[in-house]
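Notes, p. 3: input format for complexes.
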Amino acid sequence: MTAPALSIEGLSVDYRAIAGPWVNVVSRVSLTIGPGEILGLAGESGCGKSTIASVVLGERPAGRRVREGRVRVAGTDILQLAPRDLQPLRGRRLALVPQNPSQSLSPGMRIGRQVAEVLEAHGAARGAEAERRAAGLLAEVGLPDPERLARRLPHQLSGGQQQRVVLAMALACRPALVVLDEPTTGLDVTTQARILELLADLRARHAVAMLYISHDLAALAQVCDRIAVMYAGEIAETAPAADLFARPRHPYTRGLIASVPRLDRPPDPAAALRGVLRREVLPTGCRFAPRCPAAEPVCATEPQRLDAAAPGHAVACRRWRALEPAA
Ligand SMILES: Nc1ncnc2c1ncn2[C@@H]1O[C@H](COP(=O)(O)OP(=O)(O)O)[C@@H](O)[C@H]1O
Ligand code: SF4
Ligand SMILES: [Mg+2]
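Output follows (327 residues plus magnesium ion):
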């Protein structure tokens, strides 16, 4: 049996400021991505999405600790790996597409050379052969006239073109997992739509597994097989993408979906999200209770765990059955 592209089991992560106390930001998160599968990770800013991405990529900054849990990429235990073994893994088995493409591109180096260097660094090709394959990769991510574009410098490209180059670099060695952290957030709406089309197209052609992080549920729905919704560091609900939209079961998911503007129906004010996430005042029970339109007094003191509501569909809300719309 092939190992999952990503397996996260019971991951809890804390941060602390210098000499301050540890503050928990990710709590008992479990996620699995099968080979070739795209999992969307949704939730408002500050809920812990980028922290999970960073842990998966093997980053270990000062002031952060993994309190518990296991993280495996294609069977390799990321948390147990020595730093010198992490470097060869990145780029070859595991790649990142960050929000800002300039984070991944060297300003003074021609585009074609940058893509070629990824191939060379991992022993996939050398010299002229690497440059030739680089042009092929640029064509694959929908960049026109790749030979000419390969001779340009990053600043001569638009933001959308730069993000395509970063995608080409991420895909260069056919990694087991690509992590995309808000890859379209800095782009205008039309360019965003094109990048989403490209991702859908790449997944159809290459079956590359992706962890696609976004606060934009509508964007996730276009490319993901499954979606996990996070609230304040915990998974609130996880389901196949179509199922999540057709039958959202957690009041927070309903709120997120109600906040997506749609032409085919009026907004639902009862489901709309109220207020903002305030980490200083999280209850000991359901963390969403202060903002939940369906909360009962006991919700704030009773911790919630994921409950299977349907095949592949789990929800962490004690009231999910009572809240089901009448058939
Ligand atoms: N280096 C850090 N030190 C302290 N707190 C951090 C650090 N990075 C992130 N946080 C906190 O962790 C929480 C989750 O952040 P993050 O993972 O970036 O969320 P998201 O990507 O969903 O917006 C936030 O409350 C944020 O303020
Ligand atoms: S457990 Fe209670 S507060 Fe939490 S989402 Fe469900 S109904 Fe709302
Ligand atoms: Mg983030």
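Residues 15, 25, 43, 45-51, 63, 279 surround adenosine-5'-diphosphate (ligand 1) (CB under 6 Å).
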